[in-house]
Amino acid sequence: MMDFEQLVSRQRDYFLTQATKPYSFRMQQLQKLMTWINENEQDILDALEWDLGKSSYEAYLTEVAMVKQELKDALRNLKKWMKTRRARTAIGQLPGTCRMYSEPYGVTLIMSPWNYPFQLTVAPMIGAISAGNCAVVKPSAYSAATSAVIKRMISELYEPEYLVAVEGGRNENAALLEQHFDFIFFTGSPTVGRLVMEKASAHLTPVSLELGGKSPVIVDETADIALTAKRLAWGKCVNAGQTCVAPDYVLVHHSREEALIEALIKEIREMYTSAPLMNPILPKIVNQRHFERLIGLMQSGVVAHGGQLDVAARKIAPTILTDVDWESPIMQEEIFGPLLPILPYRKLEEAISRIRQRPKPLALYLFTRSKAVEERIMREVSFGGGCVNDTILHLATPYMPFGGVGESGMGGYHGKYSFDTFSHTKSVLKRWARPDIPLRYAPYDGKMKWIRKLM
Questions:
Q1: Are 199 and 212 in contact (CB under 8 A)?
Q2: pTM of the model
Q3: Spatial separation of the C-alpha atoms in residues 437 and 429, rounded to whole Å
Q4: Which of 49, 70, 210, 334 is catalytic?
Q5: Confidence of residue 94 (pLDDT cuts 50, 70, 90)
Q6: Is the pLDDT reported for residue 330 higher than 70?
Q7: Percent residues over pLDDT 70 in the chain
Q8: CA of 389: how far to CAs of 250, 320, 375, 386, in Å?
Q9: In the structure, what pLDDT confidence band is assigned to residue 1 with cuts at 50, 70 and 90?
Q10: Per residue in 178-200, pLDDT tens?
């Protein structure tokens, strides 16, 4: 195993040379990254197909294109992001000026998951580079082919004292978390997120946790059922449901349950044919353990559609489950697979109450034509982010932060928000020498009335 203590020490020494901070240096590193991705795109797509069975189209759309979008945004706007910002000067600070400086944390750790192994590694890495940090990047061992591509990319582009990739599994993860980093960015499960936060607390290291949870869908009686089914089926089936913001379960008004199920079956057949296991665009489940876990969860209800398995290929047909009980196993954990429980409700209050009884979800999706219903859900339900009349696409932008709340995470990133996440805002007051108003200095006799007036 690599000597991680020495590695972090070398990066800290390099960071203290100030080499990573100039605008020209940061731009050069981002430009090199864009060039490498363009020149090695097919290798990235091949690795994603090997790890997850993703078609080239889906891999490009959900991984490579999103990374390029993040890079283009950073290259276009980095100078503006780095500018010192003026702030209003409070009356007690006069005469003087207030400014805010964005400074890099220093040596950062980026730990990424296997489900979108390229995008969820490189997107936060762009934030770390843009903000002027050094970084140790730890991709997932479950997506070994993509991790190898990432390691090759980083080793070809950067010196290890600046940016380095570490391959390996739990032993490497545990050893890295014992080191003293200046910031940790983790994407993964809430269970591991708790461990990351615990280890970070030993050094008072700030963290950003991008976690998951059971992201609900609400379909009310006014929803456009055909459109709802199309967008819901896509959101659930992309990457075989192995998406942290995938629709996890559907709360549908009882009057529209049957129509929604019929429409979902139609859309699934349209997208993956009536023999989805034979369709090469259907991704596979990442490993045998997760495959067997999903087979077990499938017993939680009645299979209304799907349920077919290809054990050798680790593929599961998109599956709709009905007659699911709130206490059943599938409702106790994030599904992370192509299984979709449908649960009817009679009143919106019932749906809201069910969601609020559970940990705050990473995403929520509402299908409705009612502005009043939309406003009520936004007002009464806490969640990381989401869509009205769509799924997943709220994260496909550099112009809004993506992140969770409560057990679904803390912190946000994408675009300028990635730069901010990997930066400390340093607030500075610059005072003038004259005049030096004596009100703040002792003795205080007779000064109270003037302080009350001024403050």
A1: no
A2: 0.95
A3: 16
A4: 210
A5: confident
A6: yes
A7: 100
A8: 13, 20, 14, 10
A9: low
A10: 999 999 999 999 999 999 999 99
* pLDDT confidence of residue 436: 82
CA–CA dist 113, 140 (Å, integer): 5
Query: What domains does the chain contain, in order, with CATH numbers?
Result: 4-211+404-428 (3.40.605.10), 216-395 (3.40.309.10)
The residue among 152, 23, 164 whose CA lies nearest residue 107 is 164
Reply yes or no on whether 103 is catalytic.
no
- Has 210 been annotated as catalytic? yes
Candidate list 244, 267, 387, 407, residue with the active-site label: 244
Whether 309 has a pLDDT exceeding 90, the answer reads: yes
Strand partners, 344: 252
